[in-house]
Design goal:
Blueprint lengths: L2 H8 L8 H12 L7 E2 L3 H8 L3 H13 L3 E5 L4 E5 L11
Antiparallel strand pairs: 1-3, 2-3
Amino acid sequence: MSVHLLFAAADLSPRQVTPLQKLALMKIADSADDQTRISTPTLQRIASWAGVSENQADEIVCELAESGLLAVDRHEDEVSYQVFPDGVPPLRHT
């Protein structure tokens, strides 16, 4: 569990992410390793946090990857995510 990454995701502005993207990113960040920033939640878990279907969650993950907030590594039966692959943004609010 990474509280720092969770707070960084929660602190993103509405210009950076939609509310659903923020919720999905917060779930992924919540279960990420502090050092590697890698997380492996299922689409079902992400969908549950965001209140969307698994298909919608998959679309949201793709959007987050396209925006550079998430790196997605798909292997045979497992998907891993790296939160903030280019570095954790500084918090706007303290």
